[in-house]
Amino acid sequence: MLKKIPADYFDSSKGTLKLLWEEEWRALGITQSLGWEHYEVHEPEPHILLFKRPLNYQPPMSQ
């Protein structure tokens, strides 16, 4: 499903997407488990977002 990305998500100095906070990329419809961080935009193909998280990530325990 294609979605129009809001203009304020773009970095005008680079002409690509800015790094998105979790609330922003989830608002675009991206779903994945907890702990992921958007760390880079692949400039040759700006529709590709790169995410990372620690290898042995354990989500915080709910009380």
From TrEMBL:
GO BP terms in the entry: cell division
GO molecular function term, any single one: cyclin-dependent protein serine/threonine kinase regulator activity
SMART domains (alphabetical): CKS (SM01084)
Stored SUPFAM superfamilies: Cell cycle regulatory proteins
UniProt KW Transcription keyword: no
Keywords: Cell cycle, Cell division
KW Glycoprotein (keyword) present: no
InterPro entries (alphabetical): Cyclin-dep_kinase_reg-sub, Cyclin-dep_kinase_reg-sub_sf
Similarity annotation: Belongs to the CKS family.
Main function: Binds to the catalytic subunit of the cyclin dependent kinases and is essential for their biological function.
Name of the protein in question: Cyclin-dependent kinases regulatory subunit
